[in-house]
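INFO batch 0412 | record 1 of 1 | parsing
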Amino acid sequence: MTQPMVKMMSNQQQHLVRQSMAMMDRFYDDEVALLRSFEDDSSQYGTRGSAHYALGLLIRQESGDVGKAIRVLHKVLDYQYDAPEEIYHGTFATQTNDEHPPIGHYAWKSFAPGTAYFLERTFEKVSAQFIHNLQQENDLLKEGADIKQLRELFDASVNAVLPPVWISYDPNWREFIACVCAIATAEFVELLPDELIQRMDEAMERAVQGSVERRLSDVIPMNTNIELMHIFITHYYGHRFQRTDWIQHADEQAEGLLQEFDEYGGTFAEFNTTTYYGVDLAVLGMFRKYAITERMTEIAHRIEHGLWNNIALFYNANLENLSGPFARAYDMEMREHSSIGVFLYLLLGEGYEYLTGMNCESGHDPMIALLGIDVPAQAVPYFQAHQGDRLVRKQFMELCERNDPKANRNLCTASAWIGEKRMMGALSGSRNTNGQMHPATIHWQTDTGERYYLRLIRRETGGDWNSHLRGITFEAEVTPESLNVDVQLDTAEEIEVYFEIRGPNLLPQNLQRERWELPGLTCSVKAEAPEPTVLMYTDYAEIIYRYIPGATEKRMRFELEVSE
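INFO prediction complete | emitting tokens
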């Protein structure tokens, strides 16, 4: 009998599989045959997480695992949308309680590229005009009415008729789940019944077709990690189904990605990102193991090595983190919402298990163990020890996925100072509306080993930083001792521009307007901005500068001089 795959793995790979599967086993509901969500509400069941669990079961192959994986994969396939004329055709519900997206009101295939952008901008204008008209009609708008609530009601009405991306469906679930199905088919076809293989193939025809139509229409642009997955599944299933049109499409897309990657010294639109580099590396591993043609393997190899060289350039082995700035990321800490630590553990080996601590990406770990790593020799020393203080700069062409496709690419410069115990990052040239962009960052470590970070972000007053907001731009620059940022605010909304500082033992009396006395770091602050408000939390602080349209200047400037 064939030995379970996990038994043929290295000690490091086995550790990843055991640790991740122990976590996912606790979230598995055998009656439902799905994994409860460990990212959001644990009372709900997630399809992507369940697909990764099924793959982990096939890798582990303990008693009952294969039968369980078959049940889970069947259940995940139940949640695919089969609606050939709809923009969400072939993707999957993210959770089992998702309502079906609106149907029959959006002839998206007849629209030009950028439709999603223009629709969003149009409805923003309609909403603003709607509120204005209400304000002019005293008999319709009661005194004291909540204007924000009225806007939300209007938006909800629009979203009930048209299928709003990221609200009623997630187009990227096509690519995530299709990648799992491709690996399961390539590695475990002999373990899976013909009925399931046939059902997966039928589902993948829908998923890849929907993915190709999305890419060709450019209605919803693809960020780098999704673009890589798109090329992989189109290439793999193009060959599996002998679809010459898909094969040609994948080849053209791969050549275009490589050309863009090489243009600015090996950089992605999603640049220097703790969150998405983990996905990128996993997909490049899929190409390494399962690409059909020699040319596709060559392209992926060049990109994988180039990506590792970029990671090394912005990495600090003492702080065990990427420096920033981040084109898109959820967290400043590499081990939060990221798989980078898992890849580094596979590289560095025994003694670095702590880099693989559980987070919301840990369900990918069995897949990463299966795919392995390919790190170029010149990059390895940067992950083993600090390679000397350095000021680095890289250019990249960003993607503003919610902007006019004729003007959604901008040449940006990411600069960083990488010191022994401190590193700082600054971004210039970006016009991205995404709150995941972190244009100004500082990481540092005290003499006793405590680690801290600072980031500049923004949010609508009463809202959340992880949102798209128009009319706010940042221009930042860095030197070994300074971080300077210009902020422009051309928006009708009240905005909070704020520094978030995370780490232990922060004291409010040490956060004065012109000087921040932090453990292990002192910042002299010159702020051309409104008087700040300081909010203290258990393990972090916020220094908030509020922009009020018509009452405060549309420009803020911050000059931080830092010293240990």
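INFO post-check: The CA atoms of residues 455 and 490 lie 22 Å apart.
INFO record closed
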